[in-house]
Write a structure and sequence with these properties.
mainly alpha
């Protein structure tokens, strides 16, 4: 019974760690998306400036 409880605890901990890793990956991906979107916006602004000259 004790070993079954330990096994359940280990599975629960592993599941929690996997969920935390998944959330971190999603946050990192979202941050990267915003960084890229900001860079593209800046580049388009520069191109627009030169086109207007």
């Amino acid at each position: 019974e004790d070993s079954e409880k330990e096994s359940d605890d280990e599975e629960e901990q592993e599941s929690r760690l996997n969920e935390e890793a998944r959330i971190r990956e999603e946050e990192d991906a979202e941050e990267l998306y915003h960084d890229v979107a900001g860079a593209v916006s800046a580049i388009l602004g520069i191109v627009h400036q030169y086109m207007d000259q």
